[in-house]
Amino acid sequence: MIVSILQFPGTNCEYDTQHAFEKLGAKTEIIWHKNETIPNDTDLLVVAGGFSYGDYLRSGAIAKFSPVMKAVKTFADNGGKVLGICNGFQVLTEAGLLPGALKRNDGLHFISKHHNLKVINNDNIFLEELNNGDVVNIPIAHHDGNYFIDPEGLKELEENNQILLKYTDENGEIKNPNGSVESIAGVCNKAKNVFGLMPHPERAMESILGSDDGIKMLQGFIKA
Amino acid sequence: MKAIVNVSLKAGVLDSQGKAVHHALDSLHFSGVKDVRVGKQIVLQLSETDKEKAMKDVTQMCEDLLANTVIEDYEIELV
Question: Which of A14, A92, A100, A132 sits 20 to 30 Å CA-CA off A162?
Fold first, then answer.
């Protein structure tokens, strides 16, 4: 299992992501955004979190034009597995690889805390190790995590089981921290090979640090 | 030539910053404000002298980068 992790100027979760996947037994490589190719043997490409290009203009807006992104698009179009975490999710929506957009949080504050998430659809390689309705405790850390999609787009997400996770309380009841449409925390594309979520599973790998529920999530990719 | 691009959230997309500004105006007793929308202005100095060509170029810039048309509208003014 080879995990390639993208690094833009301003990315700051690449080493956490590397640690998380190596803990699960994967080999990892960090790919600088100026590269025009990604390693041929990549099984999973991760767009890590952070603040690419200082979030200038819009979060992810400038990163989508980095040289490496052409290779990422080709990889995804050919069925390659792609995971965007936090800023990575923003980059993937900006690049048109995932539907919708991430707006400023409704409360206008940067939110950094553990939050419960409910698994909505597990019929995909990412969440297949979990059951629908399972609640996981994963940190969130974002300013622009307010997921928006228009009503037609939302209908399509629901019909194709593309909603992965929703923000909830510990009992799985909707609890929306940032104003996201339908409390959505993560989605995938129609072909179910491109995944994006605002919460950070790579930061939930050690129970002594608050939660190791991230293991259950990222393991899906390892076993796939 | 100068292009002034105004980017704002689409009607129907909740503008939380606009709402916060509206609240602040209310608390300052500016009671006549019905709605506030916060956008951003991008000013481009262009070497192009043909207005039609400039409009076409800037429109493409908006579609590709300056606005995210999933959530934002843009207006272009050439001066």
Answer: A14
A104 touches chain B (CB under 8 A): yes
Q: Do A108 and B66 touch (CB under 8 A)?
A: no
Decide if pLDDT at A190 tops 90: yes
Residues of chain A in contact with residue B69, where contact means CB-CB under 8 angstroms, are none
Total domains in chain A come to: 1
A127 vs B: CB within 8 A = no
CB spacing of A148 vs B13 below 8 angstroms? yes
Range of the domain at A184: 2-223
Q: List pLDDT tens digits, range B20-53.
A: 999 999 999 998 999 999 999 999 999 999 999 9
Domain interval for residue B70: 2-78
CA-CA distance, A27 to A88, in Å (whole number)?
20
The model's pLDDT over A200-217, given as tens digits with 9 standing for 90+, comes to: 999 999 999 999 999 999
ipTM: 0.87
Count of structural domains within chain B: 1
pLDDT reported for residue A223 = 81
- At residue A70 the predicted structure's pLDDT band, cuts being 50, 70 and 90, is very high
Kindly report each contact of residues B37-42 with a partner whose C-beta sits within 8 Å and lies 24 or more positions away, as own/partner.
Answer: B37/B8, B37/B9, B38/B8, B39/B6, B39/B7, B39/B8, B39/B9, B40/B6, B40/B7, B40/B8, B41/B4, B41/B5, B41/B6, B41/B7, B42/B4, B42/B5, B42/B7, B42/B66
Would you tell me which residues 35-64 of chain B have a C-beta closer than 8 angstroms to some C-beta of chain A? none
Average pLDDT rounded to a whole number, residues A155-177: 98
CATH code, domain with A99: 3.40.50.880
